[in-house]
Amino acid sequence: MTLQLRVYVPPHPLVKHWLGVARDASTPPPLFKSAMTELGR
User: Fold this and answer.
1) Which of 12, 28, 29, 36 is deepest in the core (most CB within 10 A)?
2) pTM (2 decimals)?
3) Do the domain assignments include residue 41?
């Protein structure tokens, strides 16, 4: 049996936006870093 971690993502427009930016493979590194900073607030 494997351990599976679950992450709760609140249904908020800004969270949805920054997750979309972070998940996009074509996002430039500075913008990815900004997305991670915003999501960590």
Assistant:
1) 36
2) 0.72
3) yes
DSSP assignment of 8-37, as one string?
Answer: -----HHHHHHHHHHH-TT--HHHHHHHHH
Q: Looking up tokens 């800004």, which residue turns up?
A: 14
Backbone φ/ψ region at 18: left (φ over 0), alpha (ψ -120 to 50), beta = alpha
Per-residue pLDDT tens over the stretch 2-41: 899 998 888 999 999 999 999 999 999 999 999 999 999 8
Query: Domain for residue 33, yes or no?
Result: yes
Nearest alpha carbon to residue 21 among 8, 30, 9, 12: 30
